[in-house]
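user: Here is a favour to ask of a fellow structure person. I have my own habits and do not want them to colour yours. Could you put it straight underneath, so I can go through it closely?

assistant:
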Amino acid sequence: MVHSSTATRRARAGLLLGVLLVVIAIAGASLRGDAPGPGVPLVPTPPGGRGDGEPFADPFAYDADREPELVRRAAAGTSHVLYARSPGGAMATARRVARWRPLVESAARQARVPADLVEGLVFLESAGRADAMAGSTEGAVGLTQILAETGRNLLQMHVDVARSARLTQRIARQELRGRGDLVARLVARRRTVDERFDPAKALAGTARYLAFARAQLGRTDLALAAYHMGVGNLQSVIRLSGEDAPSYARLYFDATPTRNPAVQKRLASFGDDSSTYLFKIYAAADIMRLFRRDPSKLARLDGLHANKNSAEEVLHPPGDTPSFPTPAALKEAWDRGDIVLFPQRPAVTGLARDPTMGALAERLGVPRGLYRGLRPEALAMALYIGAQVRAYAGGDAPLVVTSTVRDETYQRLLVASNREATRNFSLHTTGWAFDIARSYTSGRQALAFQFVLDRLQVLDAIAWVREPDAIHITVSRDAAALEPLLARLDP
């Protein structure tokens, strides 16, 4: 969506195809702790520890040499919303978007932007629907969701909002009456009074905006990010960074509550998905490439994303991820070292184990300890989250972990007594998932936790979903890079 002012951008917030990232209600509070934490690029160490907190490089921190990898991760990590919210699914949306490829290529040449990225923008903005509208005709309209004010004043498009609105009402009435012939004539007339509804002219207008934005910002990636954020807003972020024309990946990934905090705070202040918009364009471009080159893989991903409210089954597909059917099978996994103990050492880990964890074990005739463990990679990620939240928020209060590994027998018992428990494939039965209670000791801790969750999800390192009482987190296999943290648990 093209923006010409902060006011119009905020009026449109939340209506982009890529839905808002969930924000804690106290989002206005500061993330700064009582004292600056060590932050990145080192993983924070326990406070006052002896030798149990040796620092090591944070594998998820910004590194200029790894920027292409971070961008690829961000495209994957932000893709779930495109699969889950695209009208008819990602496959159907890709089919609609592909129809406009010749016009997309023409606009891309005009803007001097790769055609795949312009196509990704179309996917993200309108899902390939030339008549897409965000509210009224004064708002964002058409294939590339151009605001009326921007179309008229910046892009030199003919936009008669009043006539466009009247024709839109007539089109809706005739569609209800099944008058397809009359609808077609009205649609053609609306394109002449409001060029945002004309796909060719909308794309040409978008090309002019991208050329303007690149001239102002100096980079194509920044121009694409500004399409939703607005040039002025992005310029304010760049000024805070102290750089002339940094890559957008550097702006985003090198900003945390303790490293370039002014940039992080400014990006968070927009209150919508502006900060990850560029990565969603990359995700949409990846979907379109799969549509053309490997439609069977796209169809499989479409199904996996649809199965849950997060991308957890994309990280661990049911057919490819072993689960533990019985307590005996889970015990064997412990014996092999596939599952390791989740410790009760909050001073070291920043995490406290809920005493009720494994409460149904007695009904199965097994000890509760059987259900107090994770795969080593998942435990390492839990330790990373605990360390980062404590460093960003300040203070010693731990997050409370309420649930770790289960077997399928235990899961069935849980389903019978807890309506929130999934009746389908549960990642808890694989050892890759854990839950953290939604109870925080301060606003700083809540916001720090939210930041860590969002950043790790963007990096495709976790998938998470908010449940009534807990945050359910599924860990990627890439968390193996964090296994040095397990050494902090040695006695």
User: Anything to note?
Assistant: Residues 6-17+86-159+194-295 form a domain with the Lysozyme fold (CATH 1.10.530.10).
